[in-house]
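Researcher: I'm preparing a figure for a lab meeting and need a structural model of a single chain. I don't have an experimental structure, so a prediction will have to do for now. The sequence is pasted below. Please return the structure as tokens so I can convert it later.
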Amino acid sequence: MSPPVSQQEPVNILLVDDRPSNLLSLKALLERPDYNLVLAASGPEALALVLRQDFAVILLDVAMPRMDGLEFIRSVRSELNDQALPIIIISTKGADEDVKTGMNLGASGYLSKPISMSQLKQMVANFLG
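Model: Understood. Here is the structure written out token by token.
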């Protein structure tokens, strides 16, 4: 018999964006006792976190310096050989090519900025089951 929901461990959700204000906004929108929100300010930092711990879902900004979101997806899907980890890409409106490429690389879904709070919460909840 599984423990009551209130006693279950929080699920790890990785939030990745190079802009601190965007990370804090995502965190504020998703903060719940049953979520452990982990923040990463770059693709390399996020990749290092994925190597060290399990995440239930990742919310990933596409446009970042050094390692953009698309390269991060490539790394997770090929180098880590993880096809099942849900990755939701976040892009600016009009970045259709990035969204298309991200979905072809194995992103599980996408959201456009400005992000709708209800869409964000619903998409995350859908991937958490």
